[in-house]
Amino acid sequence: MRQLPLRKEKNMDSTHSTSVLSDNEIIELYWSRDESAIKETDSKYGKYLFAVSFNIVHDNLDCEECLNDTYLGAWNSIPPARPNVLKAYLTVIIRRISVNKYNSKSKKKAVPTEMTVSLDELDGVLAEESDVYKILDSEKLSRVLNSFVGSLSDRRRFIFISRYYFAESIEAISKEIGKSKSTVNKELASIRAEFLSALEREGYTV
Amino acid sequence: MKNENLNNALSNLDISFIENHLKEKEKYARKRKFKAMLVRFGATAACVAFIATSIILPIRLANIPPDLPPGSSSSQVTTNPNQDQQTTLPNPGQTPGIPSQPKLVLKAGNLAYIVSGGPTYGTPTNAYTTVYAPNGKYLGIQPIPDDKVCGIYEVKHIPGGLDENRLKGFIDGMLPQLIDVLDPNASVPQYEVKKKEPSAVSSTVYLFADFETAGCIFGFSQNGERFLLQLRSSGYHQKTSFNGRTLEVDRRNTDEEILESLEPVKNSLFEIFGVEFSGVNVERYYDGWTDGGPQSVYVTYYPENSDGLKDGKYIEIQFNEFLNEDNGNYLSDVKIIYEYREETNLQKLYDVELISLTEAEELLYKGYVFGGHSCPKCMSMQDKISFEDYDYVGMEYLYGYTDDKKIYRVAAPFYVFYKEIGIFENGNKTYAKTYVAAFEVEGMDVYFNNQISKHVD
């Protein structure tokens, strides 16, 4: 018998912070270029950020990498940034990083994740690349998407963002909002239809 | 590409939507907790009502004083879920039968920490971890020992401070011979010993010296009784010469062939380091997309203790990121690690009786498993699979801290179960791998019942 091969030695620090700092205090640490900002961020949001990343890349090692890149991203961008809600700010960073990782992995035909499934649903909404995607670049699409998301009711927006931004499973969303899976599925189908209309309203033939 | 554009557009969603979403999420979580509290309160009220009507009331009616056993007060019932994670040291002499030497009592929550690798992602562990291999032979499964008893070890960090002279002695004792086998024409460089200061990422302090010579980068370090050498090629996929031959392995070979091809290298290293290790192991790391075999091959030589564990020192030769060259050679990046301690760092705390495979299977089927490091959400997201007809079983020691206080780092035995769950395009199979404690552990019911609520939060 011997040591588990796939698990490498963890950090053997003997110190472990127990008190959790407020967001403002953590942001101040970033602004004063105090490296403990990263440690405090990890202790407060590490678990949550890991979960966000895992939904997208579905691999522990990749998540670790995304998490480290997120902390580096936060370190490099604060200052000058002073986020209103640190958690949301970190979410945006880790999602972008994880999506990049997902894109590079999916090119290698890696593991299908909840992200693949949720995007495949949206795939049906949009026509072939020659139609929409030649006309709409990401920036334009973002504008349409932002205005569409803004037009949704609170609950429908929550469901849409949970599914397509955070790549959460239908089951998890249904548990979260306390509704059945079929209700969530119906809501999503109707949101997709609305998104289609929104694109058409913008003058695009879909 | 279509997905990619859409995903990029989603990434550019206004941050205010995300801020509001997180607020909404908290609101929903509060609602769920309130509902759960109501349910619990209702259940408790129902129990109290039941007890009152079925026990107390008849007793009072019959006017017979209740004959309760001593010590059956409700205060003995543990309701704090965190209590399950605490490592306890029984007070010697308090209870008959407990040895006078205090010993570490591992509970289910502690095992979760050991498996999940520390406090970063908390105690919950997912149901399994996915691993890849061409077939079961390459999963590195360790056999279940015939012994009915195994040790629980404390992995001790022996403090000894930083000692520049000892580090220099370690370096100078091997450097000339090491350079000689790598490149006889290279000269022994002057080096400087530096101190690694604590940082935000790691508070570990150690002395180190790093330099480049003989086509390799050398890194030496010292902290207490731990001395470490890490050596790798200067460039990416640059050949490393060892005694005039390229240091490489053919990853298509069997373990025996790999060990045989490395025999001269092993003998040289043993001579240079002045050691003789009896234990040897070949590990292979596979994925779902690399063609031509494993991504990495690690060969480790080490002195074994009675339970077959690495005991304080080892030599590891790592071959990473294999590159298929036109001439058929399988060139990889090479790294040699030599870790040395004057004394053993494994101290046996006590022996435990191993549970039988049948008992372990019962725990497996009940879902009392530790699947690897994860977070509550990951577990709730993971596809459920059944281990009822698992493919392989073995036993492994896992190393880890017992809780977030990081006081005790232990090695404990686990049954490890594998179930094949898919095949990738490169032909490798995917296996779900999960662990079951190989000895009787307190607090399993409390821990796993508590995990369920954590996983859905």
How far apart are the termini of chain A?
61 Å
Number of strands of chain A: 0
Please give the number of β-strands of chain B: 16
Structural class of chain A: mainly alpha
What does the oligomeric state look like here? heterodimer
Low-confidence stretches of chain A: 1-18, 123-136
Q: Which percent bin holds the helix content of chain B?
A: 25-40%
Sum this structure up briefly.
Helices cover 68% and strands 0% of the residues of chain A. Chain A has 206 residues and is an all-alpha fold.
Keywords:
heterodimer; A: 206 residues; mainly alpha; 10 helices; 0% strand; B: alpha+beta; eight-stranded antiparallel β-sheet; 29% helix; globular; disordered C terminus
Describe this structure in words.
The complex is a heterodimer of chains A (206) and B (457). Helices cover 68% and strands 0% of the residues of chain A. Chain A has 10 helices and no strands. In chain A, helix 2 crosses helix 3, helix 2 (36-57) crosses helix 4 (86-107) and helix 3 crosses helix 4. Chain B has 457 residues and is of the alpha+beta class. In chain B, the strands form 3 sheets. An 8-stranded antiparallel β-sheet of chain B has the order 3-4-5-6-12-11-10-9, covered by helices on one side. Chains A and B meet through helix 2, helix 4, helix 5, helix 7 and helix 8 of A and helix 1, helix 2, strand 1, strand 9 and helix 9 of B.
Question: What is the strand and helix layout of this fold?
Answer:
The complex is a heterodimer of chains A (206) and B (457).
Chain A: H1 23-31, H2 36-57, H3 60-77, H4 86-107, H5 114-123, H6 132-135, H7 138-151, H8 154-165, H9 170-177, H10 181-201
Chain B: H1 2-11, H2 15-62, H3 108-116, E1 129-133, E2 149-155, H4 164-172, H5 175-182, E3 194-196, E4 206-213, E5 216-223, E6 226-233, E7 241-242, E8 245-246, H6 255-261, H7 263-273, E9 279-285, E10 296-302, E11 314-324, E12 330-341, E13 346-353, H8 357-366, H9 376-381, E14 392-401, E15 409-423, E16 429-437, H10 444-456
Antiparallel strand pairs in B: 1-16, 2-13, 2-15, 3-4, 4-5, 5-6, 6-12, 7-8, 9-10, 10-11, 11-12, 14-15, 15-16
